[in-house]
Specification:
about 150 residues; two-stranded antiparallel ribbon; 5 helices
Length: about 150
Amino acid sequence: MARSSHPGLFLPPVVVGVILVVLAIVYASGAELAWLQVSGFVVGLGILTFTFLDMLVRDIRHTHLHPIGVRAIVLGIMVLEVLALFALTYLAIASYPDQMNGLTTPLDALYFTMTTLMTIGFGDISAESQLARGTVLIQMFFSVIVLTASVR
């Protein structure tokens, strides 16, 4: 098998992209499918975490299957998917009462995701419930450990 035909690097972002489309459709439809939203978040974040760490290990071991330009593009796509995944998750959490203070639109969710990722935290949007705070903690952990380790 030729090195450039290995699908391993491309498959995870495609799968997560499909998950994001499903989550966006669920949000847009207004359906309350908490089990699907939680499953999509857990599976999507798990796939992204594994792929980020796999890329890091391959970088350390110098066992790359793709040139640096391809890996950089895939890494950029995956970072965007992380942002979309957390934003959609915050939207889903905010659809329940007393969960998120100040988060009402998709732009609010992306804004909150970015302020959490950048560790800015202006305080205009806040996590009120244990579920929301737990999700913010997951994003903080993911941002500090996985994303920073991937920038090598």
